[in-house]
């Protein structure tokens, strides 16, 4: 089944404890991106990647890192999480660019205390 | 800079009533616009895009370049249409292409 998977789906952690949220797609998509969804703020892009080893900042990249070493994986790294990073995170992928239909993962609900 | 504005955070209508979710954009180039929908406990998914000019689940949206709008319409709302709706703009600049979303409108269709 063609899909985007994220792990974990739920995570509660403490301030400063490094964490990684994984994202994987099995559709051979070139483009992948991360968003955070907050009430009243909608979807804001954190980082995106046009291809392997090509990443770029979105609207709210501060406090996050990403890597794209393989086409299928695009992990989101929080080196030192803070409470303001408590949010619902979505990974998405598409065939070529942001112009193509985005396929979203199920979301990861992160709480930083 | 590119921007997508959805002026209504919440839109509440009764079943059978017409519905219009507003979306305005700001972009100096040739826009590509989309509507994505998120039903309760489900993933975001593409509802429709302006280039396909199709009707999905009874919804239509017309790109109005003069008014820089891409409003989503449905003549008779159904309860199952209750969801979060996001308007999105795809743009291309230099060698980069990306997608930005509006803040979303929550549609509530009452019985």
List the helices and strands and how they pair.
The complex is a heterodimer of chains A (113) and B (111).
Chain A lengths: L3 E4 L2 E4 L5 E7 L5 E8 L3 E10 L2 E4 L7 E2 L9 E3 L8 E8 L8 E2 L3 E5 L1
Parallel strand pairs in A: 2-11
Antiparallel strand pairs in A: 1-3, 3-8, 4-5, 4-9, 5-6, 7-8, 9-10, 9-11
Chain B lengths: L2 E3 L4 E5 L4 E3 L2 E3 L5 E7 L6 E5 L10 E2 L10 E3 L8 E11 L2 E6 L3 E6 L1
Characterize the structure shown.
Chain A has no helices and eleven strands. Chain A has strands spanning about 5, 10-15, 20-25, 30-40, 40-50, 55, 65, 75-80, 85-95, 105, 110. In chain A, the strands form two sheets. In chain A, strands 2, 4, 5, 6, 9, 10 and 11 form a seven-stranded mixed beta sheet that branches. In chain A, strands 1-3-8-7 form a four-stranded antiparallel beta sheet, with no helix packed on it. Chain B has about 110 residues and is an all-beta fold. Chain B contains no helices and eleven strands. In chain B, β9 (about 85-95) and β10 (about 95-100) form a beta hairpin. The N and C termini of chain B lie far apart (about 40 Å). The interface between A and B is medium-sized, with 24 and 22 residues.
What would you report as the Rg of chain B, rounded to the nearest angstrom?
14 Å
Mean pLDDT of chain B: 91
Q: Compute the separation of the termini of chain B in Å.
A: 41 Å
Low-confidence stretches of chain A: none
Number of strands of chain B: 11
The tally of helices of chain B reads: 0
Query: Can you give the helix content of chain B as a percent range?
Result: under 10%
* Radius of gyration of chain A (Å): 13 Å
Elements of chain A, N to C (H/E): EEEEEEEEEEE
Separation of the first and last Cα atoms of chain A:
36 Å
- Topology order of chain B in helix (H) and strand (E) letters: EEEEEEEEEEE
Mean pLDDT of chain A: 94
Helix content of chain A: under 10%
Amount of beta strand of chain B: over 45%
* Largest interface, counted by CB within 8 Å of the partner chain's CB: A-B, 24 and 22 residues
**Main beta sheet of chain A: strand number and arrangement?**
7 strands, mixed
Shape summary of chain B: globular
The geometry of chain A reads as globular
């Amino acid at each position: 089944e063609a899909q985007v998977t994220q792990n974990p789906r739920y995570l509660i952690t403490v301030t400063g404890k490094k964490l990684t949220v994984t994202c994987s797609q099995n559709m051979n998509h070139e483009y992948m991106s991360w968003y955070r969804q907050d009430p009243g703020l909608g979807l804001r892009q954190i980082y995106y990647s046009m291809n392997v080893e090509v990443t770029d900042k979105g609207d709210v990249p501060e406090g996050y890192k990403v890597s794209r070493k393989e086409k299928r994986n695009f992990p989101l790294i929080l080196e030192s999480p803070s409470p303001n990073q408590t949010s619902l995170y979505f990974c998405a992928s598409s065939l070529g660019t942001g112009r193509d239909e985005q396929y979203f993962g199920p979301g990861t609900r992160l709480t930083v205390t | 800079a590119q921007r997508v504005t959805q002026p209504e955070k919440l839109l509440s209508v009764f079943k059978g009533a017409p519905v219009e979710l507003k979306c305005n954009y700001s972009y100096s180039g040739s826009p590509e616009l989309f509507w994505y929908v998120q039903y309760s406990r489900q993933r975001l998914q593409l509802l429709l895009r302006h280039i396909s000019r199709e009707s999905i689940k009874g919804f239509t949206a017309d790109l109005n370049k003069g008014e820089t709008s891409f409003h989503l319409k449905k003549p008779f709302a159904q309860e199952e249409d209750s969801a979060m709706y996001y308007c999105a703009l795809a743009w291309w600049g230099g060698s980069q292409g990306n997608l930005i979303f509006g803040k979303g409108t929550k549609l509530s269709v009452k019985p």
